[in-house]
Amino acid sequence: MINILLIAFTISLIYIAMANRMLTFIRIIAFQGLLLFGVAFVELIEINVVNLVFVLLETIVIKAVAIPMFLKYILDRNRITREAEPYVSNFVSVVFVTMIILGSFFLAHAIHDSYVRKIFFIVALSALFTGLYIIITRRKILTHVMGFLVIENGVFVLSIAVGSEMPMLVNTGILLDIFVSVILLGIFADKIGDVFEEQDVEQLRNLKD
Amino acid sequence: MIGIYLTGSLLISLAFYFVRKPLFNVILAWIFCTLQGSLAVYEYDHPDLTQLVYFTPDSLAIIFLGVISIVCIPVFYHSFVYLGKHPYKPREMGMYYAATVILITSISAAYLSNHMGITWVFVELTTLSASALIYHRRNKLTLEGTWKYIFICSISITLVFIGVLFATVAVQQQGITDLFYKNLSHHAATLNVFWMKLAFLFIFTGFTAKAGLVPMYTAGIDAKDKAPYPAAALLASVLMNVGFIGIFRFYEITSHTTIYGWTNKIVLISAILSVFVATVYMLRVKNIKRMMAYSGVEHMGLVMLGIAAGGIGYYAAILHLILHSFAKPALFFQFGQIYRTYGSKSVYDVGHYFKYNITGSIVLLFAYFIVTAMPPSGMFVSEFLIFKSLFSSGYLWVLILVMILLTVIIWAFGKNVFKMLFIKPVDFDDAHVETIPFSESLSQFVLLALVIYVGLNPPEALVSLINSAISTLPR
Questions:
Q1: β-bridge partners, B145
Q2: Are B339 and B231 in a shared domain?
Q3: In terms of domains, do B304 and B248 share one?
Q4: Distance in angstroms (rounded) separating the CA atoms of residues B389 and B384
Q5: pLDDT exceeds cutoff 60 at A84
């Protein structure tokens, strides 16, 4: 079960690489939130009720509903529909993301450690690098926020993999911080859309020496 | 006490945001500074007393708390001066003060935290509150600066979190279930080297965004450029100490393991690159505020050189951080006056400063000597000790390289500062130049005098605090 969920998550990464419409991006992000809930639920079923509620809150409520809705709102407000000209073609992106996943396989294979389950490690690393790749190759700054979200999802998988023993208080703090930073990024993306003509990183080239 | 402090500052920031009356703001600022000061005094009196499970004042935290308690008073004073001169809306001013209070509080809490996760939470909180300050002027450029700052800091803090997770892997193999620095340090020798290496790489890279080191220094430069100058003074001094403390606490853990030599190499490479990058940009930068920000990159590079070299370098590094946290705000406060006189940040538009503001230009001249570590600056002592430690630990070539780079920095910095002081500006209409009262420069003099005093004759208590902060590191 866990494997199916994680493999679905990895496939969604490849799908992101070829997604052209912003709305598709948002749907994938929401879908990933659901998958992560599944992973967390299967993994953490034995934990106590408070932790379960917390994980539920983090994945379903925030990752799968709140953040995608918020991004959709910004999208509508700024009337963005298409991902305007990524720096590289979608085909190249798919090849790159596939290579990232393959690379993660080899990297994880090199680790001789029985404590970490490799599939988690592979998925987490792939998500991390795919997120960075999206940030580097796309021009819309809202896409950058989504790249950041993909990285955050990867980190979430990793934290399940290592069975992080973070106390509840710390977890809540981390959750709130990430949530607020995504909201802030969204708000500023919105403002950039208002102030500049386009929500495009090309507009952000004025601060230099 | 920490509980009282956290609730108190939360209430104060809320009051700042909602009440928005000038007189009331002054009273609130005094209350907050008193609270901040009493926290520092209380923690000094109760070293190693764990409060609310997650906060323990160790020597390093106490030192930095003392520094921030001193620095926050002139920051509030200059904030009043700055906001008094500009017609900002009450809501924007309330936001500014509230964000300042939250920033100072989260910095202090990050100093005091004894748990990796809690440090993470509060460091992230500094990003969020700092972004409100950077965006204060609400124009295109501040928007760009804020966006870059939040984005790069968010990515960096995610890297730190990945590092923390890798550390968790290493820790769990030893059957430890929490991430208190004390436990980690205690069991450090038994931890899996591979995971610790990965963890160190990620944590170090992540915290360089706050500490202002290569590779993630860029966002900090834009932030210091775009933030109002009192806030920039905070970002350029005490916030950099947060990055340092994050790196240092994990460095201290790795120093008990076999990867100690390897971590030193990483730190050394980052330090040399930081000084190098600072040199390159100092040569070409024409924006005064950015020039000051790059000077911070240089100083953090020197601090990290001291850490990498070890021995007396540890002592010198921490002393250097303290002195830098006093000297840099003085420069930024002075920048505020320059901007009011000339209405420009560019070196080209500023000149003949002695004619328009004698006190201010004396501060600028004096601050130049202090920041470039010429005697009697206290930083001369700390830099001298850092160089000595480099020499005695066999990094002779590094020392020679860094000294050449520093000479270039002193020249480039001096070229700009003396231009501002003595050479006539082009096309400057001095009909409406505002006379700036002497009293507004007083805080700069006090801070610079502190640099000299603390550097040349560090108080007994401070010396023993620094020594106890570095006592666990290998000699």
A1: none
A2: no
A3: no
A4: 9
A5: no
Domain membership of residue B371 (yes or no) is: yes
Q: Cα B475 to the chain's mean position, in Å?
A: 26
Verify that B241 and B293 share a domain, yes or no.
no
Q: Are B396 and B387 in contact (CB under 8 A)?
A: no
Could you tell me if A199 and A80 are in contact, meaning their C-beta atoms sit under 8 angstroms apart? Answer: yes
Average pLDDT, chain B: 93
Whether B194 and chain A come into contact, CB under 8 Å, resolves to: yes
- Tell whether B286 and B203 lie within a shared domain: no
Asked if the structure places residue B399 within a domain, the reply is yes
- The token pair that represents B435 in the structure block: 């006379």
In chain A, the residue whose alpha carbon lies closest to the alpha carbon of B174 is: A115
34-73 in B: which are within 8 Å (CB) of A? 54
Residue with more model confidence, A180 or A126: A126
Cα–Cα nearest to B97, from B205, B18, B197, B194? B18
Contact B225/A at CB under 8 A:
yes
Give CA angle at B181 (B175, B186), nearest 5°: 60
User: What is the tally of structural domains in chain B?
Assistant: 2
B302 and B227 co-located in one domain: no
Q: Tell me: do B59 and B109 sit in the same domain.
A: yes
Q: Are residues B96 and B174 in the same domain?
A: yes
Handedness of CA A75, A78, A82, A86 (dihedral sign): negative
DSSP lists the bridge partners of residue B51 as B55
Question: Given A116, A144, A185, which is nearest B169 (Cβ)?
Answer: A116
Is B224 in CB contact (< 8 Å) with chain A? no
Minimal C-alpha gap between A98 and chain B (Å): 22
Q: Give the closest-approach CA distance of B355 to chain A in angstroms.
A: 28
In whole angstroms, what is the distance from residue B115 CA to residue B55 CA? 8
Q: Is the pLDDT of residue A165 over 70?
A: no
pLDDT score, position B373: 92
Is residue A82 exposed (0-12), middle (13-18) or buried (19+ Cβ within 10 Å)? exposed
Task: Please tell me which residue of chain A has the smallest CA distance to B166.
Answer: A162
Cβ contact (<8 Å) for A113 and B128? no
Structural domain harbouring B203: 1-258
Q: Is the ipTM of this complex over 0.90?
A: yes
Is residue B195 one of the residues assigned to a domain? yes
**Residue B433 pLDDT:** 85
Phi, psi of B115 (to 5 degrees): -130, 135
Backbone angles phi, psi at B427, to 5 degrees: 50, 45
Same domain membership, residue B342 and residue B243: no
pLDDT under 50: residue ranges of chain B:
none
Average pLDDT score, chain A: 84
Residues of A in contact with B115 (CB under 8 A): 170
Task: Identify the residue whose tokens are 């004619």.
Answer: B355
Chain B residue numbers with beta carbons less than 8 Å from the beta carbon of A204 are 144, 147-148
- Preferred mutation among A125, A145, A157, A164 to probe B, highest tally of B CBs within 10 A: A164
**DSSP structure string for B125-153:** HHHHHHHHHHGGG-SHHHHHHHHHHHHHH
